[in-house]
């Protein structure tokens, strides 16, 4: 027979997974809206952002109630801490998806910026898959997949650099279009931040399994 705390932790996991699906869908929708110029979808993402925030608050409240009422220890406590930390990263990823949707409303899809948009499209698809894969790892408690996060972070960093360099080149060639190029950089930065959120979740997956705090994100920065 399952313990009461096991049942409550299962419910938390299910709620976290539902929230994760919402966030991953928002990331994917924001990327597609940006690429095709779908203003309606972009505005819907912004309008529905509060749903993700509300789910985060409910999850946090329930997790704190479990700590107060059940007084979990060792593995049970790690489960609750993992959810508390990971749900915050999910919420932040949702915020960045909203930022992408907002930036997409300002994009000008000029022919000379098509190479930049193509790079961003590929980056967006990569980041959406990364988030979905990390959420799958969370559900399956696959801490070994989470350990591959460092290489994924390097791949994301390289794509971010390529977009940054393409934007700088576009600015040099079309100095009068700076205001139209900057939103592309904003989107690239938001995608990289989502990557960081996904890797943070990976770190908490490993913590839940091993009790160890690890760092999956390599120390890299885009130079000015």
From TrEMBL:
Residues 17-101, 123-205 form the PhoU domain. Coiled coil: none annotated. One of its GO terms (biological process) is phosphate ion transport. Gene3D superfamilies: Phosphate transport system protein phou homolog 2, domain 2. One of its GO terms (cellular component) is cytoplasm. It is found in: Cytoplasm. Its main location: cytoplasm. Keywords: Cytoplasm, Phosphate transport, Transport. It comes from the Bacteria. InterPro entries: PhoU, PhoU-like_sf, PhoU_dom. Transmembrane segments: none annotated. Plays a role in the regulation of phosphate uptake. Belongs to the PhoU family. Homodimer. This is Phosphate-specific transport system accessory protein PhoU. It comes from Paucilactobacillus wasatchensis.
């Amino acid at each position: 027979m399952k313990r009461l705390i096991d049942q409550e932790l299962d419910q938390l996991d299910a709620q976290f997974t539902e929230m994760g699906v919402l966030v991953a869908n928002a990331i994917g929708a924001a990327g597609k809206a940006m690429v095709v110029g779908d203003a309606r979808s972009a505005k819907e993402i912004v309008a529905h952002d509060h749903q993700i925030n509300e789910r985060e608050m409910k999850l946090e409240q329930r997790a704190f109630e479990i700590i107060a009422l059940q007084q979990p220890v060792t593995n049970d406590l790690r489960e609750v801490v993992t959810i508390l930390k990971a749900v915050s990263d999910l919420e932040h990823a949702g915020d960045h998806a909203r930022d992408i949707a907002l930036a997409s409303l300002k994009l000008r899809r000029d022919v000379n910026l098509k190479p930049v948009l193509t790079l961003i499209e590929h980056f967006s698809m990569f980041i959406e898959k990364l988030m979905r894969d990390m959420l799958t790892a969370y559900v399956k408690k696959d801490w070994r997949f989470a350990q591959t996060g460092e290489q994924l972070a390097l791949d994301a960093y390289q794509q971010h650099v390529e977009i940054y360099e393409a934007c700088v080149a576009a600015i040099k060639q079309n100095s009068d279009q700076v205001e139209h190029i900057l939103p592309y950089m904003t989107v690239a930065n938001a995608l990289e931040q989502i990557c960081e959120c996904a890797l943070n979740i990976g770190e908490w997956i490993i913590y839940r399994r091993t009790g160890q705090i690890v760092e999956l994100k390599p120390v890299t920065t885009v130079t000015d």
